[in-house]
Amino acid sequence: MPATAGKPQPKSQLVTVQRETDLSLLYRVLRTVIKPLRPRLVKPGKPQPAGSPRLADYPKHKNGCKIVERCHESTDVWLYDFVPETSSSFVRKQGPGPLHNVYYFAGGGFQSPPSGQHWSFVGKIASSLAGTHRFTIVSYPLAPNSPASESLPVLRRLLARLISESATAGKKVVLMGDSAGANVALSLGFWWATHLSKTIDAYSRKTSFGLGPIETGKPLDLEADMTKLRSILESIVVISPAADLRNSNSQMAAVDQHDPLLGAEYTGSVAEAWTASPPGELDTGINADDPHVSPALNSDVNYRAMVLQKIHVYGIYGTHDVLAPDTDVLREKCEKHGVRGSWMIWEGQMHCFPLAGIYGMEEGVKGMGWLIRIMREETKIEHNHINGDKPLTQLRPRLSSRGRRITE
C-alpha cells in the first residue's frame, strides 16, 4: 500500500500508514552513544517471583494522576490505576467520564516489571486522555518463574473478567503495550477474538457453548450476555511489538547492523526465556512457532475473527529495530484480512522511540502525540450498540466444527 511521508492516508481505507523520515540531531547523537552499550541498557534485572509481582516501588503520583494499587481478586493479578486528581488542571469534563479502560503491558523482555520510563510515559498519555480513557498498568507474571505457559492462562482469565466488568459498566476496553508487552497485548487480543467467535458460532449451531467457568466463573449461556461482550474489546495499540518470536526473518540481519538498542542476539534470548518451561517442570509444548506467543503467525481464521469482533489494531515502530521486519508482516496481514487500524512507521528510528518523548526527543514527542490522537479519534468511531446488534444466529462466523465443545 502506498503511503505519504508525514500524512495519513484517507480514512475510508481499512488501514492507514503514515511514514516519517526526519531524524533530529539529538537522536543522531543518541544512537551513536548508546549503540556500543546494546543490549545492556535493556538487560532484564533479577528474576521476579512466580505469579503477578507486587510492585513495591511504584510511584504514587504521575502527571496529575494518583496511582492506586489493587489486586484483582479472582486472578491475583496486581493492577495499577492512573486516577486523575480532581484538583489537576488537565482534567476536562467530556460527557459522563472515561468511556475506555486501557490496560497497559510494559515491555522488559518478558522478564522485568515496568521501569520508571514506563510510569512517566503512561502518566503523560493518561493525563492527556483523562476525559475519555482510564489507564491501568498490568503487572503480569514474568519469566523465568512464570513464562508464557504459566502467564498467558492467568492473563486470559483476567481479560475475560475485565471485559465482563467493562461491559456491565458500559465501557470499552483497549489493550496497549510496548515491545514484549505489545506481544502480550496482541496475544490476548487474538485469543479473545477467536474465543468469542467460536462461542458465538457454537451458540448459533445450538451445540455446547459458553466461555466456561475457567474464564468467567459461570457458564455464559445467554444470547444477551454474549451480545453484550461483542465489541467491548475495541482496539489493541502496540509500540514496537515483538510480533514473531522465531527470530528468523531474513531481513533481520540487515536491520541488526543499524539497531542501536536491541540486536538479534538479545531478542533471541528473550524469546527463549518466554517460551521456556517453568523451573523444574517438563516441556510445556510451547515454542516460538505457536501463534499464542508469536501473534503474527495467527491463521487467516483468527485474523477474520478480529474483524468479526470489530477489534482494531494500531501500531507505531521504527525501521532501525530488529523487530521491525516482523512488525511489517503483522501489519500487512492485518491489511490483507481487513483488520482496521492505523500505523506510523519512522524510517531510521530505534526500538520504542515514543517512550523517549518523556525526555523531550522530538521524534518521541511526535510519536506520543500520534498515539494520543489515534486513541482520541477511536472514541469517535461509531460502533454497534447492544440494542442495535444483529441476532447471533445471523452472525455465525463458521470458525468451529459442528458439535465441537468450546474449551480453549
From TrEMBL:
Highest rank taxon of the organism: Eukaryota
Coiled coil (residue ranges): none
Region (Disordered): 40-59, 385-408
One family name in Pfam for this protein: Abhydrolase_3
Residues covered by the Alpha/beta hydrolase fold-3 domain: 102-354
Keyword terms of this UniProt record: Hydrolase
Stretches that traverse the bilayer: none
Ranges of Basic residues composition bias in the record: 399-408
Name listed for the protein in its UniProt record: Alpha/beta hydrolase fold-3 domain-containing protein
Family annotation (InterPro entries): AB_hydrolase_3 (IPR013094), AB_hydrolase_fold (IPR029058), GDXG_lipolytic_enzyme (IPR050300)
UniProt entry tagged with the keyword Nucleus: no
